[in-house]
Amino acid sequence: MSEAVDVRKMHWYGHYRHTVFNMVQSCFEDDGASGVVLIGIQPTLENVMTCAEWPCIMQDLQAAFEEKKAPFYQKGQRKLDFTKINFKRISIQDLGEELEVSTRRSKQAIIASCAEDHFEAAVAAMRAHNTSTPDGCGKVRRAWATAEDVYGGRNHPPKAAGYAPEADVMERMQREMKEKEQALKEAQEALRAAQASEPASPAERQAVKSLGLEDLTASADSSMYSSRGRVFVKRLEQSLH
Question: Strand 73-74 vs strand 77-78: parallel, antiparallel, or unpaired?
């Protein structure tokens, strides 16, 4: 079972939230929509961020209304009616049919949550609806967060068949750092053994090899190694090949 992810603490969520709020306001004020339906495409459990963002955006819209904040209130005056906003989470297979239902009687729909593996199908359904909008139906917009928003263009790390939350990334980096520190410690002990004119043991040779022989021999000419240490590294290189 995946750990709970607090997307509100992540850098991308504020931008995502602002986009959804502005789009809701635009549907009502710019286009005169009679209502707005926010649609979330049902993700798999491996789509950690998509699973977490949907309940948060619903809660944040309700909180904004209750606290008399934008997009519902401007300068203390209510501009939008929260009761005219509905939320639906559906499968990608039902999206095309649902868009027609959700936009009847001049309502508009916003696809506000969608996992990356459903982007193409969701865009196709949205364009098909907007290209030949049925009589009496409003248009469809999209406001979902993308991998570019969430990971800033970096390759997102895998977790099972989906994506790992940022906490998992930090844990992996800390683990790798500890492994490098341990490898360095073993190499230093091997160099100290060489300086004491002790023959290199198989364990010492393996410690240096685990660091990556090319990196270590490239550093052998630097001032951080004693002359005896440099000889030891060269000897290890010969014995390992």
Answer: antiparallel
Phi-psi region of 189 (alpha: psi -120 to 50; beta: other; left: phi over 0): alpha
Give the residue-averaged pLDDT of 43-65. Answer: 95
Q: What is the pLDDT of residues 80-107, one digit of tens each?
A: 999 999 999 999 999 999 999 999 999 9
- One DSSP character per residue, 205-230 reads HHHHHHH-HHHHHHTTTSTTS-HHHH
Assigned CATH for 7-164: 3.40.50
Q: By the 8 A CB rule, do 152 and 51 touch?
A: no
Q: Are 24 and 110 in contact, with CB atoms under 8 Å apart?
A: yes
- The dihedral region occupied by 68, where left means phi > 0, alpha psi between -120 and 50, and beta the remainder, is left
pLDDT value at 219 more than 50: no
Is the separation of the CB atoms in 120 and 146 below 8 Å? no
Q: At 52, is the secondary structure helix, strand, or coil?
A: helix
Q: Where are the domains of the chain?
A: 7-164, 169-240
Q: The tokens 């002790």 sit on which residue?
A: 198
